[in-house]
Write a structure and sequence with these properties.
The protein has about 170 residues and is an alpha/beta fold. The protein is about 35% helix and about 20% strand. It is globular. The termini are close together.
C-alpha cells in the first residue's frame, strides 16, 4: 500500500517522532512524507475554477502536492494542536485537496494528533470530527484516530505506551 503522511508540524518534536515511529512499524508499505511547513501553497480562494477535478489555478505547490496525495492508497494526517484545531500549515494543504477532491474518494485516512492537554479535552474531538466530516463527504475510510497528550517538545519519544499504540496501529495496516 502507498501511504502519504502529511506532517502539519513546523517543529521537529512529537509529531515527527510519531511519523518516524509509524513509518518504522508499517513494514512493507511505500511512504511519501509531505512536510506542510516547507510548502509554497496559497490559501484556497473558493474561485471554483477547479471544479473539484481540474486542479488549482494558483501558481504554487498546490497541484504537485495534491497529485502526491491522490496517488496514495492511504493518507495519514499528523498535527499538533494549535488553538483547538490542526495547524494552519496542515489546514492549507487539506483545503487545497478540494481542487481534485473527486480523485480522493474511497481512500483510507488516519490521524495522529498530539496536544498539550489531556486527551479528554474537546480539542481532540474537534479535530477528529473535522476529519470525520471530510471522510463522510469524500467517502473515505477513516481507519484510525490516535490522540496523545504530550506537553513537552520531545515527550512522545519517552512515552512507551504511546509509542506502542502507534507501532501497533501501523503494524496492523493491511
Amino acid at each position: 500500500m502507498k501511504i502519504t503522511v502529511i506532517n502539519g508540524s513546523p517543529r521537529k518534536g512529537n509529531s515527527l517522532c510519531a511519523i518516524n515511529t509509524f513509518v518504522d512499524a508499517a513494514k512493507g508499505h511505500e511512504f511519501d512524507i509531505i512536510n506542510a511547513d516547507g510548502l509554497n501553497i496559497s490559501p484556497c480562494r473558493g474561485c471554483g475554477a477547479c471544479g473539484c477535478t481540474a486542479g488549482c489555478v494558483a501558481d504554487d505547490d498546490s497541484n504537485a502536492i495534491v497529485d502526491r496525495i491522490i496517488a496514495a492508497d492511504m493518507i495519514v494526517f499528523v498535527t499538533p494542536v494549535y488553538w483547538w484545531g490542526m495547524t494552519a500549515q496542515l489546514k492549507t494543504v487539506v483545503d487545497k485537496c478540494y481542487c481534485k477532491g473527486v480523485y480522493m474518494k474511497g481512500k483510507a485516512i488516519g490521524t495522529i494528533v498530539v496536544g498539550g492537554a489531556d486527551t479528554s479535552d474537546p480539542e481532540y474531538r474537534l479535530i477528529r470530527e473535522q476529519f470525520e466530516c471530510i471522510a463522510k463527504y469524500l467517502n473515505l475510510e477513516y481507519r484510525f484516530a490516535l490522540d496523545f497528550f504530550e506537553s513537552g517538545l520531545d515527550d512522545l519519544a519517552n512515552d512507551e505506551a504511546a509509542i506502542a499504540v502507534i507501532r501497533e496501529t501501523a503494524a496492523s495496516l493491511a
